[in-house]
Amino acid sequence: MRFIKMQGAGNDYIYVDCFRESVPDDPAEVARAISDRHFGVGGDGLVLIHPTEQADARMQMFNVDGSEAEMCGNAIRCVAKYLYEEDLVAKQQLTIETACGDLQLEIQTEQERVRSVRVDMGRPVLEAEKIPTLLPGSPVVDQAFPLVGAAGPSGTAIRVTCVSMGNPHCVVFVERATDDLVLGLGPIIERDERFPNRTNVEFVEVVNRRQVRQRTWERGSGETLACGTGASAVCVAGVLTERTERKITNQLLGGDLELEWAENDHVYMTGPAEEVFRGEWTTPH
Predict the structure, then answer these.
(1) Which residues are tagged catalytic?
(2) In this predicted model, what pLDDT tens digit does every residue of 138-189 receive, in sequence order?
(3) What is 128-265's CATH number?
(4) Global pTM?
């Protein structure tokens, strides 16, 4: 099985072109094996690029643990780059089908190479039951979050804002996004019973009203260097909690993303997409 490894702001996935390659019989198992950073190729998951009649392509993605995810903002930019540079599409405005609907993307090129992609991430979902979360309030904004059934770092008291960008996010504004919070509380919040489908968790430092820093504990993958849907959720949460403007720069561990929650209620994300290398995967025996 031929594959391409690509990354967007350090959020790296292994991509398979299902226009030209056979779809793996068990993509969840392939995702677990190929994503392993010691015994596999290494990445934050597996992305399959499928042909489809209703869009330019369909993106299907699996986390490191084999669970299927609805969307990834960094991955979809890489899909757009691949489609354009492989001449599978001959235009700079694309539609890509995902498990949370069709998304519109605009490719920005330099000497016929894709340098960045602007993604219309759609409208944020704020209704608690649609995120989903069992926390009180709809929307859930700056809600106190008592820890249930697990102890976090000593003296930890947090407040959360919940947003879905096609997948669930729990945004926590903090003074410093420490390892104790990200690696200690991240997995606890991800699997908390108040998130029926689990959740991604963003720990966010506000630098000023137009700039934030984010660390992400990603559902099914652990800490990742970037999360595009998470950065979009942070943009929305910053406005809802009156911490930031509607247009911000989000500094992630793997690079910067530009976000805007526009007046039409859509969130727009612009960021890089880079190919790392190509190879061929032989299923281990």
Answers:
(1) 72, 227
(2) 999 999 998 865 555 555 679 999 999 999 999 999 999 999 999 999 999 9
(3) 3.10.310.10
(4) 0.90
Per-residue pLDDT at 6 exceeds 60: yes
Q: Minimal CA–CA distance to 225: which of 75, 24, 19, 50?
A: 75
Cα–Cα distance list, 79 to 85, 95, 171, 197 (Å)? 10, 11, 26, 25
3-state secondary structure the chain: CEEEEEEECCEEEEEEECCCCCCCCCHHHHHHHHHCCCCCCCCCEEEEEECCCCCCEEEEEEECCCCEECCCHHHHHHHHHHHHHCCCCCCCEEEEEECCEEEEEEEEEECCEEEEEEEECCCCECCHHHCCCCCCCCCCCCEECCCCCCCCCCCCCCEEEEEECCCEEEEEECCCCCHHHHHHHHHHHHCCCCCCCCCEEEEEEEEECCEEEEEEEECCCEEECCCHHHHHHHHHHHHHCCCCCCEEEEEECCEEEEEEECCCCCEEEEECCEEEEEEECCCCC
CATH fold of 2-120+271-280, please?
Diaminopimelate Epimerase; Chain A, domain 1 (3.10.310)
Q: Looking at the chain, which residues constitute the CATH 3.10.310.10 domain(s)?
A: 2-120+271-280, 128-265
Residue 186 phi/psi, 5° resolution? -50, -55
Token couple for 275: 């190919």
